[in-house]
């Protein structure tokens, strides 16, 4: 898919106004070195404030009403104006008023979560600018990575939003090809998730399904996984949950098997748009879903964002990378910026000491 002349004109019109690259803007354009990032996230020098980490949620966190009361902050009103021009529909109205069934669609909810999460950053910047100034690391869950990269200065707002639009449309098209879905699983210690997926694929083969897909799509926390694949595979896992040592299973309200090989048709459209937009090296540490490691340069960003579509989100591993530190070293303060508190919940299950310094920056406020 090509970045059309019309959309590119829209993007160029607004990129200078609405970059939302807070780290760069509030640090007087002084890049942060890798040594500074390492020392800031792992220890607290006596002469500096506690380091901050921002986490950006992904699809599934959206709800009707998000964004209410945030238009008074910074660039939020302009962000939604830009979004209407880039997307071609009134995203603000959809976020505030629904209908819910439209907001839940992949093509709509990914841009909605992206914009509302960055609106939450504007709120945080207004209420606690020190949190932005001292932010040294960020990570986003699935589509949340795009918001994290915009915040880090690696992408401009309007161009990243257009990439999210292309991504969401391509994922929806890939989902429409095969009946598939995602299953949230909490297992007992003896649960073997990969073996369970193998059994489910064998069941699909017995039904005549060729090249069945059933794989771990999200590593959330110890004994917390999301498994995705063919609908018949997920049915098998639910029916045999007791034998597989699953304590709880729940189908997620999504349209397809994200972060599995069933998303391969969406890779090329995303790669194409990522080649056309400007991508820079993040100015703070931004961690990739693919392996939890920091992005190192622009080519790395482009490669991993495309790979992310067909690879499991290694969120548990990402949190380990961000919060690993020697005994006695202080944990950073963590802000979840965007709708929902799911990332805070996973942080609590992965690292209770880090969670003690967690704050959620909501996307709803009482309007004056």
Question: pLDDT under 50 segments (min length 5)?
Answer: 1-48
Report the sheet-strand fraction: 5-15%
Helical content band:
40-55%
Q: Rough shape?
A: globular
Radius of gyration: 20 Å
Q: How confident overall, as mean pLDDT? A: 89
Largest sheet: 5 strands, parallel
State the separation between the terminal residues, measured CA to CA.
Answer: 43 Å
What is the SS-derived class? alpha/beta
Fold topology:
Blueprint: H1 5-15, H2 22-26, H3 34-42, E1 52-56, H4 76-87, H5 91-97, H6 100-103, H7 106-127, H8 129-133, E2 135-140, H9 144-151, H10 157-177, E3 180-187, H11 193-206, E4 214-221, E5 224-230, H12 231-239, E6 246-251, H13 264-276, E7 285-287, H14 298-308, E8 313-314, H15 315-323, E9 333-337, H16 342-350, H17 352-355, E10 358-361
Parallel strand pairs: 1-2, 1-9, 2-7, 4-8, 9-10
Antiparallel strand pairs: 3-5, 3-6, 4-5
Can you put this structure into words, describing what you see?
The protein is α/β, with parallel strands linked by helices and 368 residues long. The chain has 17 helices and ten strands. A hairpin with a 2-residue loop joins β4 and β5. The radius of gyration is 20 Å and the shape is globular.
Brief overview, please?
The longest helix has 22 residues, at 106-127. The chain starts with a helix and ends in a 7-residue tail after the last strand.
